[in-house]
Amino acid sequence: MAGEAPPGEGLHYPRHDDVAKNAHLRALEGAAEQLTLFRVDLLDKESLAAAFRGCEGIFHTACPVTDDPEKMIEPAVTGTRNVINAAADAGGVRRVVMTSSIGAVYMDPSRSLDEEADETCWSDLEFCRNTKTCGNAAQAYAHVRDVADAHARVYEAPGASGRYVCAGRTLHRAEVCRILAKFFQDPVPTRCKDETGEMKKGCRFSSSRIRELGVGFTTASQCLYDTVTSLQDKGMLLRRDADMFS
Question: What is the pTM of this model?
Answer without folding.
Answer: 0.83
